[in-house]
């Protein structure tokens, strides 16, 4: 070993032995709770006994370590009849899936349309409990049923939006020609 190499070796070993290192308290380091996975153009099918029951689509999905999901660019849900016909559509500007409650939440411009009964709903937040086959909100809602508009706060319905109960009815009126949700 030549003199230059030996001097360099001594310098490196010295730096390693005497380098200053600050000890860090593990409790003070923030735990990362952001998304652990991201997917684009997702399409989730739910079926029961080989019958198509529902379908969830979104442009982007973020998965979290606790099993929750976020759909920051919007979410669309379709509900089908037992015969497999499309009955109801739900869309929202943003969506979330809360795994521990098996609950979807839509927020922003929420639109629900029962194609068979020609009923429409508009609100800013909705919850869909898949297991109970129920949708609900405590927010202000506008419902159009054929030629009548109902306004109120709070609503519960089956997940097809076939049968609903408006909790606090504010008013109702007949649509004028050209109006509608």
Structural class: mainly beta
Number of domains: 1
Instruction: Encode the helix/strand succession as letters.
Output: HEEEEEEEEEEE
CATH superfamily: Lipopolysaccharide (LPS) transport protein A like domain
- Could you name the CATH class? Mainly Beta
The level of helicity is: under 10%
**Cross-sheet strand order for the largest sheet:** 2-3-6-7-5-4
Q: DSSP strand (E) fraction? A: over 45%
Q: Would you count the extended β strands for me?
A: 11
Briefly note the CATH topology name. lipopolysaccharide transport protein A fold
Rg of Cα set: 27 Å
Distance between the termini: 85 Å
Going by CATH, the architecture would be Sandwich
Please describe what this structure looks like.
- It contains 1 helix and 11 strands; from the N terminus they run H-E-E-E-E-E-E-E-E-E-E-E.
- By secondary structure, it is mainly β.
- The chain has one domain (32-174): lipopolysaccharide transport protein A fold (Sandwich), CATH 2.60.450.
- Strands 2-3-6-7-5-4 form a 6-stranded antiparallel barrel.
- The protein is elongated and about 95 Å long.
